[in-house]
Every structure is written in structure tokens, then in C-alpha cells.
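Summary for the steering committee. The consortium agreed at its last meeting that each partner would contribute one worked example illustrating the joint modelling workflow. Our contribution is presented below. We chose a case with several input lines so that the handling of multiple components could be demonstrated. No manual editing was applied between input and output; the record is shown as generated.
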Amino acid sequence: MQFTESEKLFEASKQCIPGGVNSPVRAYQAVHRPPVFIDHAGGSHIYDVDGNAYIDYVCSWGPCILGHAYPRVIKAVQAACENGLTYGAPTAKELKLAELIRSCIPSMEVLRLVSSGTEATMSAIRVARGFTGRDMIIKFCGCYHGHSDGLLVKAGSGALTQSVPDSRGVPADYTRNTLVAEYNQPDSVERLFEAHGKEIAAVIVEPVAANMGVVLPDEGFLAFLRKITEDYGALLIFDEVITGFRLGVGGAQEYFGVTPDLTTLGKIIGGGMPVGAYGGRKEIMDMVAPVGPVYQAGTLSGNPIATTAGIETLTILKESPEIYTQIAEKAKTVADCIKETMGDAVCVNRIGSLMSVFFTADAVSDYASATSSDVEQYAAYFGYMLEHGIYLAPSQFEAMFVSAAHTAEDIARTCEVIRGYRR
Ligand code: HOZ
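What follows is the complete predicted structure of the assembly.
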């Protein structure tokens, strides 16, 4: 494979964009090679500027659950573009998307559309603080909730990949109220509540952690969070930016049968366009301006193009629940193949169509076990897969996503490549 054009573009980009990229993981630093620059994508495939084709398991970090450039979505977006890109004013489409989301995730009785997952989590926390009159929040080590100041504490995703889980430039005063517990370790949560119970506004959690690689909640862990937050009068926020409409249309809360007070959603509800949402019980969401005193706003919130892509995507998902069984089966085939090929040298965590391979013999259930995996082995595996036409996340600490567009041939080819891997 040749990567000449990608390398040229990367060199030029480094002159005017930090690290040559607009989001750190994309620089491929963790996998020790220059990134491929993408030219276009369609269905299960993504194509770089050198003409190389890849079976894509990043799926734009999750939202392309139907595959790239799904014809019905593209057609609707093209038609919407003819009517103007943004109005900064209410539309019937915003209502339609909000109603669609609520019909799938009933705990989001009232919701606000925003433009990204970062905005959604930042706003949900502001609402939780406004509602409870308390300042502290608990987050989990290795969970990632976007890059707002107060949440860049022991963060996963790009922050973990770049080894900056606590960012410079964030004043200590902004993170003073962010308490950190260990994922899947109830004791660590109990200790924080015992020490600060009446000051804690909310616990925010990725119900399936997917930004330190994929880490599943232990049996009863989410129910424990539900109970302890209720006991102390704090709110439970599920950050479903990754799990929402990925584990099923009802998200992780339906999958695990645990209902949070507030939910945040991201890119998938825009079919891959910039959208997010936060919502929950009406009495809580009534805090949001203009009804209540918690301020949050955005010109591009609910813009007509992103909402169109979202309505089409979510409608297809809602009308075709079999998609979820199919993508889970495909993911299982790939996960089983990895395990059969690499045996005890790896731990494969999978739930539905979401998974990760960790290069460790141990079970991965929290930040310590996730970060004990051998990232250099992941880098070598990544490079081999890329050069054999399989596009994975360029970081141990991201997830692998299977889409409805992956064909039986794609899965078979992926398994063939995996079987050829020699460490
Ligand atoms: N940290 C993001 C996924 N969890 C990656 C965003 C991007 O590079 O596009």
C-alpha cells in the first residue's frame, strides 16, 4: 500500500492545524505512523487519498450505524439543503426529532437539542446542579464526557490516548467539584457519598464505558448507582453518546433496565452530523431557560440539516429492530475470531456491535486493567490491519463499531486478515 498523498497532506496540515489534526486521536501518535487522510466513504468502506480502500470499523466513532452515505439519509439531506442550512429559529423538524427520541427513550420526557456530545454533557451537569442546588459531581476514572473544563479529569478517549487525562489550561477551581470514582467499584462511590453526600449533585457515567476501550458494567453496578443517587438525593446521568441507539433504540438504559434522571446523546442522533441532546424528567428539565433559571443556548442547535439526517436515521433504526440483532451477530463473529486466533494473549470485551480487543491476559473491568494492556502490541496489530485494508481506531482506548452496511464478505475478509496476524 502507498500512503504518499496522505503523508504530504499531513506534513502540510501540521503547518496550520495543531498536530495536523482537528481531534488528537486522529494524529495516530499512539500507533506510531502518519494518519491516512480520507477522501470519501460509502457503505462499509472508507477510501483514502492514495486510493486505498478499507473496511471501516470506526464508523466516524460510532454514528454511521447504517454505514456511510446511506442513500435515504443522503437524499433527505440534499433536499433539506435546498431550503437553507440554518435559520436559528424553531422548526417542525426539531419537534419531530425530539418526539422520535422520546418515543425510543421514554425517560427523556423533555429534551433539548444541542450540537455535540460535549455540549450535551456539560449542559446536563449544569441542569443537575441547578436542580439540586449542589455543586459536586462524581465521574469515573477513564470515562470520557467531552472536553468541557470540569470533565477533563481522569478522562478517557483522546485524553487517555495522549496521556493527558488531566488537561493543562483547566483552572483547579473548575475541577474542585469533580470527584472521581473507579468504574465497577461500588466502594469507591460509597466513600465519596459518605464524605460529601449532601454536596453531590449528580453521578455521571457511561453505562458501558467506551472511551478506555470498551468496558462493560458488572452485574448490578448500574442498579447500585441508581440506588445510591436516590438515597442521597443526587441525580444519575447516563452519558449515552456512544450507547444511545447503538445497543438498541432504547440505549443502555433499556438494555440494562436502569432508568437515569438525565440522559445525554451525541452524534448518532444526527446520523453522523453534529448533534447532541440532553433530557430527562420534566420537573428537572423545567430548570432550563426560558422555562427556568439554568441558561443554555446555541444558534446551530436543532439546525435543519442535522435534524433531517437524524430523523431519517432514527426512523430507519426504529422501524428495523432486526438491525441490532444482525450487527451484534457480525460483531460476535469478529470477536470470536480474534479470541480464537490470539487466545489468552487478549481480552475481547463486546456488547452488541460495540467491542474492543485489549492486549492483556487479564479481564478488563476498570481503568487500571484497561491501562495495563500492552499498547505497543495494539499499535502493531493496528498497523497490520490497516495495511491489510481494515480500518480500526488508532488507539487502544477507543471502540470498534460494526454497522448494518458490513456484509458477510466484509466480515469473512476481516476474519481472514485477523487469522493471518502473527505477533
Ligand atoms: N475522542 C473521540 C472518540 N471517542 C474521537 C473524535 C475524533 O477524533 O473524531
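The radius of gyration is 21 Å. The pocket of (4S)-4,5-diaminopentanoic acid is lined by residues 23, 25-26, 61, 157-158, 211, 398 (CB under 6 Å).
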